[in-house]
Fold each of these.
Amino acid sequence: MVSKTAFGALPIQRVDMQTAKSILKNAYDAGINFFDTARAYTDSEEKLGATFGGGLRGISSSPPRPCPPTTRARKKISRRLCAT
């Protein structure tokens, strides 16, 4: 089950690896198990992998591309995001 609160990984791109690991572990210890990341967040995926890649179970992250759109607005957003 995914936590109701997610962690947006954008801010960890601005800190060094050790600080990022500390922040991510604190979030996990506080009950967060969903981490939102994207390729545009520079090294946030690397920092998530370095922190949780060793095998903590129950960690979820957002997909690298949007889910298939179901509405006209989502289709428009998805086209724009996938074109980059």
Amino acid sequence: MFLDGISAVVLTMAIIEPMIRQAGFDMIWFGIFLVIVVEMAQITPPVGFNLFVLQGMANKDMGYIAKKCISIIFINDSCCNTSCNFSRNCFVDARTND
């Protein structure tokens, strides 16, 4: 059985959210980061849920679909790295830097 991205976020945020706040992360930036990472998880082989959807729609084998998704995985990875490295305080809450 597969668990889609939003279900995984809803199930885990009740546990993770207090830890994220206690660590001093800005919740807006963490939410953006979380969406990017969940999106990458949806298309990353071998268990990317969206790959199975694309396979059913395109009638191609999984290897072909996975090879075509590599560029999108690199784009999402660079977006994630850019958001982490763009500012040195990207995830740190501005209230803690007074």
Amino acid sequence: MEEYPRREHFRYFSAMPVPTFGITARVDVTGLVRFCRERRCSFYMRAVNKLRAGEHAHNESPVDDNPRFCWGRYEEDHRGRLMLPFTLNANHALMDGVHAGAFYRRLQEELDKV
């Protein structure tokens, strides 16, 4: 732990009864929805595959370091894109907003590959 670059953050947030935070961002799933409709495949299963590709490595830790994901219903925005509200809940002792932002960027990059 002494070598962990975020050790002070870890100690601070680990002392909290619930050291989690959540952030919701809208991700563009237009290409994925189109892909699934054309191939008559499950949007849910394809989305899970893209989510797994967007995951980042976790530090080994005795605390609950499993992020939780939740998504809602995609809707068309004013530009005709299908946007999906996607929530990440994570342990603040292990990650900050910059890490969440990197996750969302990587997830969107994976979705854009479709």
